[in-house]
Amino acid sequence: MSYDLIFNVGKKVLNGGQISFDEALALTEIEESDIPILLGVANKVRETFTGNAVDTCQIVNARSGNCSENCKFCAQSAHHEVKIEVYPLMSEDDIVSAAKQAEAQKAGRFCIVTAGCGMDGDPDFTKITAAIRRIGRETSLNRCCSLGTLDTHHVAALKEAGISRYHHNLEASESYFESICTTHTYRERVETIKKVKAAGLQICSGGIIGMGETFRQRVELAFALKELDADSIPINVLNPVKGTPLENQTPLKPLAILQTFAIFRLILPSKIIRYAGGREHNLGELVPLGFLSGINGMLMGHYLTTQGRGADRDLDTLQNLGLQPICNQAG
Predict the structure, then answer these.
(1) For the chain, how many structural domains are there in total?
(2) Theoretical Cys-Cys bridge with 113: which of 5, 45, 146, 237, CB 3.0 to 4.6 Å?
(3) Residue 204 annotated as lining a ligand binding site
(4) Does 111 count as an annotated binding residue?
(5) Which is one Pfam family of this protein (predicted)?
(6) What is the value of pTM for the model shown?
(7) d(C-alpha 246, C-alpha 116), whole Å
(8) CATH assignment of the domain containing 160
(9) Residue 66 belongs to what H/E stretch?
(10) Are 206 and 169 in contact (CB under 8 A)?
(11) What does the pLDDT look like over 86-140, one tens digit per residue?
(12) Is 144 annotated as ligand-binding?
């Protein structure tokens, strides 16, 4: 029976063991009526390994649109005809102002995000590091950024400027990556992650589910992130954008989304598994159940090109569930 598998795997993880790939794959095939049992076990694992603290983060889309890459899900790609606001790098004052607003809304982290492949030869890089330093002087936020692929000297400069974590999603499993992007490779993403980890920084890396991948490929992604020792794993759920190649993608069922969260928690029991974009569009009023499915991190407020529920509602959800946001701890 499905629930025997769920309880046996749950006990194994709670006792310090590691779930195998085959066990995780078996959890993707359980009866739908047993998914709530899986969620409960994942919630117990989350509570046991990470307590009731929730890692909160806000982002700023500091440079929007005209990206050279052809990622099929992305509204900011120059390859797609999407009506979004396109602008160059925001001023340092505006970036710092966004950070202060995030701090006022009880975010623990602030991430500067720019559209584009990476920082090689990018004249904005020194401006971004200057903004990171200033945020460190004027707020108590943990500082992160998401700037695409990096060389070793970029990583060193960002560390010196004061970031504690770098965001660089794998986006999908290696076996599915070429189905969503062909202008750069999965291995390029892995190499940037390895450079960040080698420098002693934390890595925030996850992906997007609901892009047409199989459940097996979601499990492959989770194990790849485990192998890379990702510290924070954001799980986005595709919010199809008109004008992108995935605009007509069939959405995942809400229970399948929650099941995915739970399986990721069992594979990565002590890591931060972060609610990210698309949760409102795909889960609606079931959003709070994510925190009872193993989630212990949250991207608060709004996203790069789409609107979220707002920081106040996100914080209300945590309070109602007896969870505690990690706020304003510099590092």
Answers:
(1) 1
(2) 146
(3) yes
(4) yes
(5) BATS
(6) 0.94
(7) 20
(8) 3.20.20.70
(9) none
(10) yes
(11) 899 999 999 999 999 999 888 899 999 998 888 988 999 999 999 999 999 999 9
(12) yes
